[in-house]
Amino acid sequence: MDSWVRFNSHSQAKERIIRAAQYACTLLGYTLRKGGAGAQLRTTVSQLEAHMSLTRKLLRLGNSVEAMEAAKRAIHLSDSILRLCLTISHLNKAMYFACDNVLWAGKTGLVSKVDQRKWSQRSFKYYLFALILNLTRDVYELHLLVEREARHRAAKCPPSRDPAATAPDTSSASSPAGAALALLPHLSAWLHGRLYLLATVLQSNPPLLLDLLKNACDIFIPLDRLAIYPTGTGFVGACGLASSLLAILTIVHPWLKLKP
Q1: Contacts of 58 (CB under 8 A, 6+ apart)
Q2: pLDDT-based confidence at 165, cuts 50/70/90?
Q3: Are the CB atoms for 146 and 194 separated by under 8 Å?
Q4: DSSP 167
Q5: Least C-beta-crowded within 10 Å: which of 83, 137, 178, 207?
Q6: Do 235 and 220 touch, CB atoms closer than 8 A?
Q7: Mind listing the pLDDT tens digit for each residue in 25-38?
Q8: What is the pTM of this model?
Q9: Is 229 left (phi over 0), alpha (psi -120 to 50) or beta?
């Protein structure tokens, strides 16, 4: 019950619920179209999706200010790469929300003669750049944690100092191809070790894992909308629904939210 009260206290909670419902409608509409459902039912689902999209735009009014404040906080981070990624990401989010506000004003009739396509494309460009920076931040933090785990394991179990014990035996290789084949077992062992470290780090850091999955799902939405990598409405709906559920999970359980 405490988690539910905390969830409702967040201003973005309702927007995330509506976002999940919107992309569920996107996925449902794709399924109905593939299944040959009636035109009236498909139109109803499409209209419901459009209404939810407009409601989300209303709930996001003023989010630009919040994104600017987040950028002002991020600029004081000690790590230069995190500072760069997070500051520019928040600034792009602020621009994305500003474009989104213009779209909302145009769709509601508050502002006439708004070029919906131009402003929509512009907003998705800012959204895409913000997601690229977020993924860069996730990969950077993952790299730091993997290297730290590798150093920790090396300190606990130092490798053998005998070069003959670890060096690959290429004396029997009569050609470069033979030497390459002799290196394959060592390359495979190294790759297996890195993958094991990666899995260990992600398992022990759920906030990083969830943020990585959420951003990876989200990035397909602007890629499709901008026609950079078209994936279709079904895939976009599934990705949007998955990322929305992950975002809701971080609101219900704040310790799952990646910081800073």
Answers
A1: 104
A2: very low
A3: yes
A4: S
A5: 178
A6: yes
A7: 999 999 999 988 88
A8: 0.86
A9: beta
